[in-house]
Amino acid sequence: MNWDDETPDSATGADPRLVDAGADTEDTAVEAALRPKDLDEFIGQEKVREQLDLVLKAARARGATADHVLLSGAPGLGKTTLSMIIAAEMAAPIRITSGPAIQHAGDLAAILSSLQEGEVLFLDEIHRMSRPAEEMLYMAMEDFRVDVIVGKGPGATAIPLDLPPFTLVGATTRAGLLPPPLRDRFGFTAHMEFYAPAELERVIHRSARLLDVAIDAAGAAEIAGRSRGTPRIANRLLRRVRDYAQVKADGHITVEIASAALGVYEVDARGLDRLDRAVLEALLKLFSGGPVGLSTLSVAVGEERETVEEVAEPFLVREGFLARTPRGRVATPAAWAHLGLAPPQGAPGQAGLFPA
Question: Are 320 and 238 within one domain?
Answer without folding.
Answer: no
